[in-house]
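Ops channel
N.P.: pipeline sanity check, posting one input/output pair.
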């Protein structure tokens, strides 16, 4: 029997706010010493009252709008009860039956597969938990292992984005995760970095016979800290579950963890052990009424997202799909590219040619410098101003400087932030293209390489390329290769005719 996968994803997005969700403690727990971002509220001391972070609510609305959700007019918080050491209060303030965002959707373009339309069930607000670090005793030492708790993370704002079970392949899941990460980063509401724990994905996976519409027992897979790990875990479950059904068994509804080294999922908690969260309305926080005028203001402030921007770049600047996709993968890179192009007063074919050349330099040499271990990862942190890169591209496009010289100039701009014209003048990098300047160098190359001359006379026209290389070497890459080739060919033909 042939099976298809039915997959729903639950993604926890940690927000970048100055303070926590329900208190004024700083939310910058990543760089803080343990247990230094704490107060009576996030430590759950008796008699304290939570106060809702308005910036977090605004971020939730932004995420909901970006995912085509409806925004609730009235939303409320609930207590989600479960006993666990990292939960300071013994319950988590979350949302249950009246989330802030509902009924959205996302279209994705998985690699090698048709486009997919994925429903978004809800986006709801909640708080993060404390961080536990489990310490094992050294081998041979007696006694029990122990656990350290850092409360800094407790109370940091979280958004949970819950998809409909509309995902059917690992590629669709990967495309969904990557697009959601991109949206979060374009909005500027979070880093969405799985490796640092600010973007956590749980996958609900089941299988059913192809053509069926039933929803069979599913497993929830946790403990995945990379996009690739999510894909591998889903692939594993898609392979494992049909075997269970085919053998006459039933897939158990359970929570499983992903073992990245072994490449398998492992049972963590069975359905019988699952928690009854016993939701009830949070009595210390009244329901929130979301003003429609505020939602309209937030809607007007949303950025142009990657899909729309990519389409515009292809139409407005005549870029190919590959270049446009690379440029729009990051909002900062897309902004930088547009700043480069806008700095030049061009239209039509001239604009398209300049935009293409600019894209080549940003996606090529500048990306190489950004991705170097010692370099900044954000294009906004470079010393190269957009108008300076535009000036460099113009110099290169006009063939005023050679490709090698342009790369040398870029390296200096990267290091010092200098303007390209100043670097070119200081290093004497202007291309040599005048005949009276190049002819002595051409003649010297011919005089110093008699074997190449004989090869040319013998019919090997490729000898010209070798001699062009000698001219480029003698001028430190400044010679106009085309002019040098023409002069060499003309001079060699004269030598050949004189024989």
């Amino acid at each position: 029997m042939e099976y298809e996968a039915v997959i729903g994803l639950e993604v926890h997005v940690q927000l970048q706010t100055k303070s926590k969700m329900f208190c004024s403690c700083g939310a910058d727990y990543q760089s803080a010493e343990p247990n230094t971002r704490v107060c009576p509220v996030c430590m759950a001391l008796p008699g304290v009252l939570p106060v809702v972070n308005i910036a977090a609510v605004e971020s939730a609305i932004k995420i909901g709008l970006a995912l085509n959700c409806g925004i609730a007019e009235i939303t409320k918080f609930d207590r989600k009860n479960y006993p666990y050491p990292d939960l300071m209060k013994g319950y988590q303030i979350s949302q249950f039956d009246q989330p802030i965002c509902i009924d959205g959707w996302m279209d994705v373009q998985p690699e090698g597969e048709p486009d997919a339309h994925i429903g978004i069930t809800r986006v709801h607000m909640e708080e993060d938990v404390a961080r536990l670090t489990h310490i094992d005793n050294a081998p041979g030492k007696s006694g029990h292992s122990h656990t350290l708790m850092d409360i800094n993370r407790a109370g940091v704002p979280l958004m949970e984005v819950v998809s409909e079970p509309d995902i059917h392949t690992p590629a669709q899941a990967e495309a969904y995760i990557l697009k959601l990460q991109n949206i979060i980063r374009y909005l500027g509401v979070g880093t969405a970095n799985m490796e640092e724990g600010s973007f956590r994905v749980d996958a609900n996976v089941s299988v059913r016979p192809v053509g069926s519409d039933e929803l069979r027992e599913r497993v929830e897979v946790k403990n995945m800290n990379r996009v690739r790990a999510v894909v591998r875990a889903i692939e594993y479950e898609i392979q494992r579950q049909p075997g269970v059904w085919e053998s006459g068994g039933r897939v158990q509804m359970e929570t499983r963890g992903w073992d990245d080294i072994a490449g398998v999922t492992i049972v963590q908690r069975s359905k019988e052990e699952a928690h009854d969260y016993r939701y009830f309305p949070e009595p210390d926080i009244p329901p929130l009424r979301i003003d429609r005028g505020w939602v309209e203001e937030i809607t007007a402030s949303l950025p142009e997202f990657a899909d729309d921007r990519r389409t515009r770049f292809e139409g407005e600047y005549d870029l190919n799909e590959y270049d446009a996709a690379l440029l729009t993968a990051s909002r900062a890179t897309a902004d930088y590219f547009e700043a480069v192009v806008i700095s030049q007063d061009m239209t039509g074919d001239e604009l398209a040619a300049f935009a293409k050349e600019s894209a080549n330099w940003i996606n090529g040499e500048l990306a190489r410098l950004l991705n170097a271990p010692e370099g900044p990862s954000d294009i906004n942190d470079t010393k190269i101003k957009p108008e300076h890169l535009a000036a460099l591209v113009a110099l290169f496009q006009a063939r005023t400087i050679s490709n090698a010289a342009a790369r040398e100039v870029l390296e200096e701009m990267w290091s010092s932030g200098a303007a390209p014209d100043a670097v070119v003048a200081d290093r004497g990098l202007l291309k040599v293209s005048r005949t009276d300047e190049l002819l002595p160098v051409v003649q010297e190359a011919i005089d110093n390489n008699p074997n190449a001359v004989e090869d040319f006379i013998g019919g090997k026209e490729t000898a010209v390329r070798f001699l062009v290389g000698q001219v480029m070497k003698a001028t430190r890459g400044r010679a106009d290769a085309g002019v040098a080739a023409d002069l060499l060919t003309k001079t060699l033909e004269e030598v050949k005719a004189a024989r």
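N.P.: looks fine end to end. The chain has three domains: 3-295, 304-427, 435-498.
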